[in-house]
Specification:
0% of the residues lie in helices and 51% in strands. The chain is mainly beta. The protein starts with 16 loop residues before the first strand and ends with a strand.
């Protein structure tokens, strides 16, 4: 028979934008909220930059985001067998060590939604692979280690 479907990530459970007033990754009752369709916990914002791209199996991914404190910009393009995702903007960026997370508006096959991208810059050399994860409010997900290419989180 068919293998069971992998579990969906908890992120797409329910996006209420949440200020995370306590900085603990949870959305308490007293954290400011904004109505939307799904829930993304926005981390404390930092400066930094993420650039790169490559392939995850047959999917191609490119992404860049740069935060200089007051200004954030970036773009992404993800193409799979069934979907083309284009980031329209980057509205939040957070970086810790070699991991970055950024958020904004994107289109999936032309339909606007919200996205969250997480990049782990494993190494510039060696056997460890960089990891790219894209989740949209509309339910599109692509997560995996790059089978070719490279991301740099600086």
């Amino acid at each position: 028979g068919m293998p069971p479907e992998p579990p969906t990530t908890g992120l797409i459970a329910a996006i209420t934008a949440c200020s995370d007033a306590h900085g603990d990754g949870a959305c308490e009752e007293d954290s400011a909220r904004g109505a939307a369709t799904k829930e993304f916990i926005l981390p404390a914002l930092t400066a930094g930059a993420t650039t790169g791209g490559g392939r995850i199996g047959t999917a191609t991914v490119t992404a860049s985001a740069r935060s200089q404190g007051s200004s954030i910009d970036g773009t992404c393009n993800v193409v799979t067998a069934t979907a083309t995702v284009k980031c329209l903007d980057v509205t939040a960026y957070a970086q810790t060590g070699s991991t970055s997370v950024f958020f904004g508006r994107a289109t999936v096959n032309g339909v606007e939604t919200m996205y969250r991208i997480r990049v782990v810059d494993a190494a510039d050399s060696g056997s460890a692979r960089d990891v790219f994860s894209l989740v949209t409010a509309s339910g599109f997900t692509l997560t995996g280690a790059l089978t070719e290419g490279n991301f740099q989180v600086r």
